[in-house]
Amino acid sequence: MPSVDGAPLAPQDSVGDGGAMGEMGATGTAADIPPSYQSQLSAWLLKHQQYPRRARRRRIEGTVVLHFVMDRNGRVLDWHIQSSSGHKLLDDAVAELIKRADPLPAMPAEINKQRLELTVPIQFMLR
Question: In this structure, which CATH number among 3.90.1210, 3.30.1150, 3.40.50, 1.10.10 belongs to the domain 10-124?
Fold first, then answer.
């Protein structure tokens, strides 16, 4: 799945597929997402990404790895920065990104999970 920087979303181990929900598993990963929805999520995140002005002026570049869990309606249930860029300005921009992007596009019917757990690299590169 193309992400904000063109790299695929990284599949994560399922947080539990306890079966309590019958046919619909509890938590899915990037492997459970059809390509059309992967593209939709990537475009949505890209639309909400903003390069911090101070970071641009200072010519700071980097990649932040964002890990998040979302429900079927696209609501972000939990998130954290899995890997820092090494620059507070960029890390803070990703925190703002996930807040602005919430809610994400709702899951399509063909995804039979209650939640998705995804890891996305968010790249900040000057051209």
Answer: 3.30.1150
